[in-house]
Write a structure and sequence with these properties.
Blueprint (H helix, E strand, L loop, with lengths): L2 H26 L13 E2 L17 E3 L1 E6 L4 E6 L9 E2 L5 E7 L1 E3 L7 E7 L2 E10 L2 E8 L5 E6 L3 E7 L1 H11 L3 E3 L1 E6 L3 E7 L9 E5 L2 E7 L1 E3 L6 E8 L2 E10 L2 E8 L5 E7 L2 E7 L32 E3 L11 E2 L7 E2 L7 E5 H7 L14 E3 L11 E3 L2 E2 L3 E4 L2 E4 L10 E8 L3 H4 L7 E7 L7 E9 L3 E11 L6 E13 L6 E16 L2 E14 L5 E2 L21 E17 L5 E24 L5 E28 L2 E29 L14 E23 L2 E18 L5 E21 L2 E12 L15 E14 L4 E18 L7 E21 L2 E16 L14 E10 L8 E10 L2 E2 L7 E2 L2 E12 L2 E8 L7 E3 L3 E4 L4 E9 L1
Parallel strand pairs: 2-7, 13-18, 22-24, 31-34
Antiparallel strand pairs: 1-11, 3-4, 4-12, 5-6, 6-10, 8-9, 9-10, 11-12, 14-15, 15-23, 16-17, 17-21, 19-20, 20-21, 22-23, 25-26, 27-33, 28-29, 29-30, 31-32, 33-34, 35-36, 35-61, 36-37, 37-38, 38-39, 39-41, 40-60, 41-42, 42-43, 43-44, 44-45, 45-46, 46-47, 47-48, 48-49, 49-50, 50-51, 51-52, 52-53, ...
């Protein structure tokens, strides 16, 4: 693709962004009042009519405010409280009234001690909140034609009940959905009772409404019908102790009814969302003998009120999709669509902001500790950017940011606006095009605007004069919530355990989302970061004597080493849903990243033969890096007979350019054991002013096919055309110019014998153009290629609170450059590198309050074909590595909110460079944390490298000492 086309794209994209930013806010004010959604609240349920069971908490909570807002379904009732964890609502609905009692709770509304609102929306006649006794609050919502359908959420303000009137909910479903057919009903015995499975691939479209009649628990499922081979009714008598009958039948032509009748009282019923359909877990609540009343008790003494069978609370607890903190069940990086990770035939690990907070992560590279087969790669002179070794291969500092490629060699990146980081292992050209590393790709997902006001202040101090402050503000810009904002900002100033090393960073990231229609959103995001730091490369990698140096030793020149970089990142995103049931989505992204600055100073080249002095070089570089990306994608769902499809097609245009003006020369040697600084800048400097980059146009497609509820096929491919160049800026001499076309396919299969087990296999490919150098016959090189075979199993435990992924992979990288045996001034493409191994990742919540993330990897990564480096190991990759991070937070009692964390990281010996001549020693590092959360604030102390272990990391050419014991204290406030 020619540069003129790229210029046109840039002009059109910028014009579109400017016009949209001017037009949309004005347009948004003309929109009808938008309905608040609950997408940004912690979602305890996905289908309706559920409430949490009473847990016996004896502390008294206060409800300080009550709000009633209209929503798309009906209303939401917000019970404001600073202590949401203490509220344990119990459902006692009857007749047309949705009734919730909240024990151990009092109203604190000032002069008014009750709340009442009549006819908030059509179909709901009254909302009231009253104090029924000294320590119980009751919420009552009266429906016009039946009990309103309810959902319960945790929000920033307190408990949120979203309620839909029966009439409007049913009408909406009938208008927008076809009838879902249930072709099979299964009964499975469990440790707690019985599981009822209503098998359907369209379970996510179903809503449920529950009520109670005596000892019978009744669930109605609108817009659904049984289509069983032996009739339209299924029943079982006395399936488990305490349950006398279970019946599933067609209640009418549009509704399925499930009835569960207890022998003595109402059974407990839990609802789980699953890809297999709706799953109801039934637990017996058979009555137990009550102790006899003592005969000597005073006749006048007040007797405790006895709960009769008819008064037993109804409990329908939706737990199948709840967030377990560290475990994130869905991610977009692997397929660019929102699907459960268990449906993806690849190893994907997601590090959420909870881990970033608990570990007090300052640099994104630290997250490599929590992903198997990933090691951190030291950055450009200590820059706060992202570099990793994944499955044996260096990423070359290439990453993704919200799905857009970021050639991050020069890009400083802050954690302040990071929502989560997704690691997709294995070649990723099928969706993201050319890549330096076939080992995998890392996608950083940023925080997005919230509909409800959220404000957070965070401050951190630590040893080595570390100071850092952040803010995170979000909420609506307009009263009708048609425009939302989010503002993240951070300032950091710190010294280092390394002599003469310091850094200062300023970061700001505003983002605005505008509702351009009922199903259309426009988002404008901007990130600015200015990073000033001491440019310092560490130790040379040619002699083990460097391990005898103190880790604070500085081998540059204190008055010469410096770096200043500025990053500007602008993103425009359009997302619009359309089609039946809004099953189709159009997404458009325009992104510009520009990074520029100067790095200068003295860096070591090698330890001299005397093993006491180091040869050094002076450098002074002006650099500029520019990425431009324009993506257009359509995704959607449809069926062909019984086979379900989830498809994606896309078009991407992109441009990358990196230009540098490099001055260099020799400078005086330095005694590494007794350094004397003060060498002057050399006067005889050589200059290299060069530029390289490329234009890219690509089309890609993908189909996630559900052949049966247990078997899923993922297939896709991407065709890229890349025009690359490498030239001298000053003279205009073109060193190399290539045009490469490449198709990158992927095929994977998933078999799910149960709803908690996925077995998968996949084959995928990648490529990377070679733009530096030519053959001795003056011919351009072909792209490097790589393919991977992977098999694995994903298993969920403990009611899907804990997830484990075990994978075996085999990656072969070909067309690697190696020395031409006929002329060592040139190269030929006969080289090959291989990496294979096993990986295990475990993440989730073992018990309430006990979270864990653990990893193990065995990686055998070698040069398998080369004229000089045959059988050398790849740089920075240990055979064995493992890690564990776990926290426990007390859930009740006097220690409620108090928590402890402990972590271990192990990495075996690694090669420091190619060719292999020095091994970096293995290490075990220990981390720890102590934290306390209460109401709207959190305080924590983190100990990194608690035992002060001496260890090192690899940059590829340099060895960098890691930090000794580091203590960070953090306080954050939400308001």
């Amino acid at each position: 693709m020619k540069s003129e086309l790229i210029n046109e794209i840039r002009s059109v994209g910028l014009a579109l962004a400017v016009i949209s930013s001017l037009v949309q806010p004005a347009y948004a004010q003309k929109q009808p009042q938008e309905i608040p959604s609950v997408e940004d609240k912690e979602h305890y349920s996905t289908s309706a009519a559920q409430l949490l069971a009473q847990k016996g908490n004896t502390s008294v909570a206060k409800i300080t405010g009550i709000k009633v807002n209209t929503t798309a379904k009906g209303i939401e009732v917000i019970l404001e409280t600073p202590n949401i964890d203490a509220l344990n609502p119990v459902n006692k609905s009857q007749s047309s009234n949705f009734i919730v009692e909240i024990p151990n709770t009092v109203l604190s509304l000032g002069k008014q001690n009750s709340f009442n609102q009549k006819n908030p929306v059509a179909g709901i006649t009254n909302v009231s909140v009253t104090q029924t006794n000294a320590n119980t609050v009751q919420l009552t919502v009266t429906g016009e034609k039946g009990v309103p359908i309810a959902e319960l959420f945790d929000g920033d303000e307190g408990l949120i009940f979203e309620l839909a009137p029966v009439a409007s909910a049913t009408t909406s479903i009938q208008q927008n959905q076809t009838v879902v057919k249930i072709s099979e009903v299964k009964f499975n015995k469990t440790n707690n009772g019985l599981e009822i499975i209503l098998a359907t691939p369209e379970g996510d479209k179903l809503q449920v409404a529950s009520k109670k009649d005596g000892n019978t628990f009744i669930v109605d499922i609108p817009s659904a019908q049984l289509t069983l081979p032996n009739g339209d009714t299924v029943s079982q008598k006395q399936p488990i102790p305490g349950v006398s009958d279970i019946t599933i039948s067609n209640f009418n032509s549009n509704t399925i009814r499930v009835t569960v009748t207890g022998t003595d009282n109402t059974p407990t019923v839990e609802l789980f969302d699953s890809n297999d359909g709706l799953i109801f877990g039934v637990t017996s609540t058979a009555s137990t003998p009550q102790p006899e009343t003592p005969t000597n008790q005073s006749e006048n003494q007040t007797q405790p009120e006895e709960t009769t069978a008819s008064e037993t609370p109804i409990e329908l607890i939706v737990t199948g999709e709840k967030n377990s903190g560290y475990f994130i069940p869905e991610a977009t990086t692997a397929a660019k669509i929102n699907v459960p990770l268990r449906d993806i035939p690849a190893s994907v690990q997601v590090i959420p902001k909870e881990i970033i907070q608990d570990r007090q992560v300052i640099r994104l590279n630290e997250l490599a500790d929590n992903v198997s087969g990933v090691r951190p790669q030291e950055t450009y002179g200590g820059l706060a950017s992202q570099g990793y070794f994944i499955r044996g291969f260096s990423t070359g500092f290439e990453t993704l940011r919200d799905g857009v490629k970021d050639f991050g060699f020069l890009s400083p990146r802050d954690v302040a606006n990071v929502e989560r980081v997704e690691f997709l292992k294995g070649p990723a050209s099928v969706l993201y095009g050319s890549a330096t590393s076939p080992g995998g790709v890392v996608n950083t997902i940023t925080k997005k605007p919230l509909e409800d006001p959220f404000y957070q202040l965070n401050g951190t101090i630590g040893n080595n004069d570390f100071y850092r402050g952040t803010i995170d503000f979000s909420g609506p810009l307009l009263e009708n919530k048609s425009a939302l904002y989010r503002l993240n900002a951070a300032y950091e100033n710190a010294k280092s355990f390394r002599d003469f090393v310091e850094n200062e960073s300023t970061f700001i990231a505003p983002m605005i989302t505008v509702k351009a229609g009922e199903r259309t959103n426009l988002t404008f995001g901007y990130e600015y970061q200015k990073y000033d730091y001491t440019f310092e490369r560490g130790f040379p990698s040619n002699n083990k004597v460097v391990f005898d140096l103190p880790i604070n030793r500085f081998l540059g020149e204190p008055n010469l080493n410096r770096g200043e970089l500025k990053s500007n990142n602008f993103t425009y995103t359009l997302e619009s849903e359309f089609g039946d049931n809004n099953n189709w989505k159009f997404r458009q992204v325009f992104n510009v990243i520009d990074v520029s600055g100067n790095t200068r100073g003295v860096q070591p080249r090698r330890v001299n033969a005397d093993e006491r002095t180091v040869l050094r070089a002076y450098r002074n570089v002006d650099e500029d890096q520019n990425n431009l990306t324009f993506q257009n994608e359509i995704s959607g769902k449809f069926k062909t007979g019984s086979i379900a499809h989830n498809v994606l097609v896309g078009l991407e245009l992109s441009n990358y350019r990196y230009v540098y003006d490099f001055l260099s020369g020799s400078i005086g040697d330095l005694d590494i054991f007794n350094p004397v600084y003060g060498a002057p800048v050399p006067t005889n400097l050589s200059r290299s002013n060069e530029e390289y980059g490329g234009d890219n146009i690509a089309v890609y497609f993908q189909n996630l096919v559900e052949l049966t509820p247990q078997i899923k096929l993922l297939a896709g491919g991407r065709f890229d055309n890349v025009d690359s160049f490498y030239r001298d800026v000053e003279t205009g001499t073109v060193y190399d110019e290539t045009s490469d076309s490449k198709f990158s396919p992927r095929v994977g299969l998933v078999y799910q014998p149960t709803d908690s087990t996925s077995i998968y296999a996949s084959w995928t490919n990648s490529f990377n153009p070679q733009i530096f150098g030519k053959t001795r016959n003056n011919e351009p090189f072909k792209p490097e290629t790589a393919e991977q075979f992977e098999v694995g199993i994903k298993q969920e435990f403990l009611n899907k609170r804990l997830s484990a992924t075990l994978a075996y992979f085999d990656i072969t990288k070909q067309n690697v450059l190696t020395t031409d045996p006929e002329d060592d001034n040139f190269s030929i493409q006969t080289g090959e590198q291989k990496s294979r191994g096993f990986e295990l990742d475990v993440v989730g919540e073992v018990l309430p309050g006990w979270k864990i993330i653990g990893t193990y990897a065995y990686t055998d990564a070698n040069v398998t074909k080369d004229n000089d480096l045959q059988d050398n190991r790849l740089v920075g990759v240990p055979y064995n590595s493992a890690s564990l991070w776990t926290t426990y937070e007390f859930q009740k009692g006097n220690l409620q909110g108090f928590g402890l964390g402990i972590g271990l990281v192990y990495a075996g010996e690694r090669e420091a460079s190619l060719p292999n001549n020095l091994k970096i020693p293995s290490f075990v590092r220990t981390d720890a944390s102590v934290f306390y959360k209460r109401d709207n604030w959190r305080a924590a102390i983190n100990f990194k490298n608690l035992l002060d272990t001496k260890y090192y990391e690899s940059q590829g050419f340099f060895i960098v000492p890691a930090a000794p014991l580091t203590v960070l204290g953090t306080v954050s406030f939400d308001f």
